[in-house]
Amino acid sequence: MAQITKDTIIGEILDIDETTAPIFLSIGMHCLGCPASRGETVEQACAVHGVDVDELVNAVNEHIKDK
Questions:
Q1: Alpha-carbon distance 4 to 57, whole Å?
Q2: Which of 11-17's residues contact partners 24+ apart within 8 Å by CB, and which partners?
Q3: How does pLDDT run across 37-66, given as a tens digit for each residue?
Q4: 56 domain residue, yes or no
Q5: Tens-digit pLDDT profile for residues 10-39
Q6: What is the distance between the alpha carbons of residues 29 and 37, in angstroms, rounded to a whole number?
Q7: How many distinct structural domains can be found in the chain?
Q8: Which strand (E) or helix (H) includes residue 48?
Q9: CA–CA gap between residue 8 and residue 39 (Å, rounded)
Q10: Structural domain includes residue 51
Q11: DSSP state of 66
Q12: Model pTM?
């Protein structure tokens, strides 16, 4: 199982499990197809969108734990 951290690149997460996309969309990250957004870390995306990085990391890890 993959372990997502605040330093994990968004594109890597989507490559691991594309069904994580709605999690990012729910925080207002609507540009997932953009190469720039796919190259951001989770921490960078959270900073831009005003989201608690630990909450998002936990949500993503919970979502992929059985993958």
A1: 6
A2: 11/38, 11/39, 13/42, 13/60, 14/38, 16/64, 16/67, 17/63, 17/64, 17/67
A3: 888 999 998 998 899 999 999 999 999 987
A4: yes
A5: 999 999 999 999 999 988 888 787 778 888
A6: 8
A7: 1
A8: helix 42-49
A9: 10
A10: yes
A11: T
A12: 0.87
